[in-house]
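Internal ticket #5521
Category: modeling
Description: The requester needs a full-assembly model to guide mutagenesis choices. All entity lines are attached below as received. Residue total reported by intake: 347.
Assigned to: D.W.
Attached entities:
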Amino acid sequence: MIKKQAIAEICFKNKNAIIVSANGFISRDLFESCDKTTNFYMIGSMGLASSIGLGIAIKHPNKKIFIFDGDGNILMNLGSLVTIGFLKPKNLVHFIFDDSSHQSTGGQPTMTTKIELEKIAKAVNYKIFKIKSLSELKKLSSKLKIISGPILVLVKVKNNTQISKRVAYEPEEIKKRFMNSIMVK
Amino acid sequence: MNEIDQVKLFDFLLKHKVENFIGVPDSTMKHFIKRGLKLNKIIISTREEEAIGIATGMTLAGSNSLVFMQNAGFGNSISTITSLVQMYKIPLIFIIGWRGYLQSDAPEHILFGKIQPEILKLLEMRSRILDSKTWKKSAEWALKNLEKGDSSVLVIRREFHD
């Protein structure tokens, strides 16, 4: 399954979910395939999408918070898994799109070629789903609604053949529209 | 800053709608942290950048947040400050412990302690040093900035050896 396909599938099936997406091609794919005001595109600060998502999840316990992470991103902030596992937000669903490469910087290999991230996440209280095909991903949607988190969905993906365009909004605009759309009314 | 003032500082910030205190411990502000832990208001993170990320998420959810760290961790956080806090204009209060303020501090703190004021200036981060006489004014200044959507730094000097 191609990464962008997986990203679009999850976003389309969960239109109301708040999504925090990691920097690089993940945010670009999300922006191009499923732009909406409840997406927070993290540009820069590599590794921190999971931490930002955690902060939102704690403050919005009744809303589903999706983190769209990459293998390179989470490897830069493995401590975040520990903090999430310790605080156990029930509403947090942590997707890692794992292509075993730093795709945004030229496709250099990451250590997930030999290290299984799901084992690390399992050791720190996550519930684990490992997904290898689009049909498995489609089946997962209904389960996500009834299981309490933190949940890790490790999605094994292949890289896109084409590069998605950059997020067109200015950072402050991303922030403002996101804050307005998730505000408690 | 002594124990009584650190406890008062925590209570003052909490009373004035700072809802989240996230950071990595520093002995320079141990009484501040102890007070927060007692009130169950503190999240201790694994690294300072992570604390800033969590605080950013909470701020995006509309909740006032503060991060605390030693200056060594402030050094770790520079890229996160420029590419997250400043780029998105996320209003936060930083409390930073100034190790290396005394030239007789432990060797690992000397250089960073010396360049810390310059680094704050280069980053264009507005800061105030807390002391017994003026801490409340400085805290009010930081709260006012927060309300306006700006970040500020409150520095606690390391004035003792252990």
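Resolution: model delivered.
Comment from assignee: Chain A has a mean pLDDT of 95.
Ticket closed.
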